[in-house]
Each structure stands twice: as C-alpha cells, then as structure tokens.
Design goal:
Length: 231
C-alpha cells in the first residue's frame, strides 16, 4: 500500500476504508472483508456510533496493531478543553485501543481552539500519534494556528474531480500550511453516476484496462491526497 508522509513525519496509507453510515453489524461483517482485501487504514468517528465494533474487529483480525492505521474524530460538543481530555480517553476505551494513529476534530464549530491544546497533550501522552481537522475552512484553521504548538497533520474534506480543492490547497500554501496532507471524503462523489461516466475517465479506463472508479482514485492519489472509497 502506497503511503504519504505527514508533516509530523508519520506515514499514512494513501487509501483507507471509511465506515460512515455502517451499523455495528455491518462493520463486523464488512471490515474483516476490507482487511482481507488489503486495506490497513480505517476511518471512523465518534458520530458514526460504531467504534466499539471497529475496535472488536481490530483486536480479533490477527493483523498486528502497528500494521493498522486507525483514525477517529471528535464532534464539537467534545471540544472544550476538559471535555476534550475526557472524550479522548472515552474514545480509546470504546475502541479498546491504547492509541489511535490519527484523531480529528470532525466539524468546524464550538470551542476548537481550546480543545486543540488537549489534542496536543494526547500526542505528548502517547494516546494519539497525529492530530488534524475535518471540514475546517482556512479562517478557522488560522484561529487554531494562533494557539497551536503542533500543526494539524491532516485536513479531511470532500475531494473528487468535480471538487478538486485546488483553491483550498493554494490558500493553505499561502498561509505556510502547504505541508498539511489533504484527505478526500466522497472520492467517487458518493457514487455519482455522472462523474463515473465522464468520457475522460471512461476513455482512460479503456486505455489502461481499469474501471473508471480506479482512474478517479489514481488521479486523487497522484494529487497527493489520501482517499476513502467504499462499496
Ligand atoms: N469527514 C466527513 O465529514 C466525512 C463526510 C462524508 C464521508 N466521510 C468519509 O468518506 C468515506 C467514503 O464516503 P462514501 O462511501 O460516500 O464515498 P465514495 O466512495 O465516493 O462513494 C461510495 C459510492 O461509490 C460507489 N462505488 C464504489 N466503488 C465503485 C466502483 N468501482 N464503480 C462504481 N461505483 C462505485 C458505491 O456504490 P456501491 O455501494 O454500489 O458499490 C457507493 O455508492 C466515509 O465512509 C467516511 O469515512 C467523511
């Protein structure tokens, strides 16, 4: 599996398995299949309400923990500093893990600047390897940078060929944050049939003997993004 080196020096697999909108039973059935197929990177969140089953699969799958990359996310009610400390611990307990590889603030609301300090402390305590943001606009990333001693390693946003995020990347570069790794959710446009049928992708798919979806994912990875496609 190709990896990307984040700005904190840690490696992240370029493709992950997102478990958004999966029930606990669906996770128990399909996450082992994804691991069997070669996925080593799992993207969950407090708000997906399936961390317990994600943890069960991780602990029972037989793959050494250090070969897996586990991401989860806190929702805004968890951002105030004291709450953030408690909810990081509660998350680890739900997952049944000693650490997560990447912890994100899921949405750009609430007391994110206060919570960022708790996220940095979790890194120092070995509970979290890398920290980052999801769906944050640049002016709110700038607010976090005013108090941060650790830069966000990752920004998870919607990315696909209809939504390439080049303007966002330019803005981050102007702020000296061009080394943040972008992760793309909805890499196939949430299964957008028009996107998958675009002639540029169907023609390249024919030329290289691939599916249009594979061409789209390769485009995104070549752009330097981390992607979470899903069936
Ligand atoms: N941070 C955030 O706020 C946020 C928001 C949304 C999502 N996410 C993350 O992004 C992950 C992915 O979201 P998603 O599953 O909607 O993304 P997606 O991969 O863009 O879309 C999934 C859709 O693509 C279709 N598909 C998959 N492979 C295909 C292929 N080879 N050919 C044609 N169609 C194909 C699937 O259809 P079939 O089911 O028929 O295979 C499914 O309907 C989530 O699980 C979550 O981890 C994060």
């Amino acid at each position: 599996m190709q990896t990307v080196t984040m700005n904190d020096g840690n490696q992240i697999p370029a493709m992950g398995y997102g478990v958004f909108m999966m029930s606990s039973d669906e996770v128990r059935e399909h996450l082992p299949q994804a691991l069997e197929a070669g996925y080593r990177h799992i993207d969950t969140a407090n708000a997906y309400f399936n961390e317990v089953s994600v943890g069960e699969v991780i602990r029972s799958c037989g793959i050494p923990r250090e070969e897996l990359f586990v991401t989860t996310k806190l929702f805004p009610q968890s951002y105030p500093y004291d709450q953030c400390k408690k909810d990081i611990d509660a998350t680890l307990e739900r997952l049944g893990l000693d650490y997560v590889d990447l912890f994100l603030f899921h949405q750009p609301y609430g007391e994110y600047a206060s919570g960022w300090k708790a996220m940095e402390e979790a890194v120092a305590e070995g509970k979290v390897r890398s920290i980052g943001l999801s769906n944050f606009p640049v002016h709110k990333i700038a607010e976090i940078m005013e108090v941060a001693t650790v830069k966000p390693a990752v920004l998870q946003v919607e990315i696909n060929p209809y939504w390439n995020q080049h303007a966002l990347k330019d803005e981050l570069a102007k702020m000296g944050l061009g080394d943040i790794t972008l992760e793309g959710w909805y890499p196939l446009g949430h299964g957008d049939e028009g996107l998958l049928a675009e002639p540029v992708f169907t023609e390249l798919a024919r030329k290289y003997g691939k599916a249009p979806a594979q061409i789209i994912l390769r485009w995104s990875v070549q752009e330097g993004n981390v992607v979470f496609p899903k069936t």
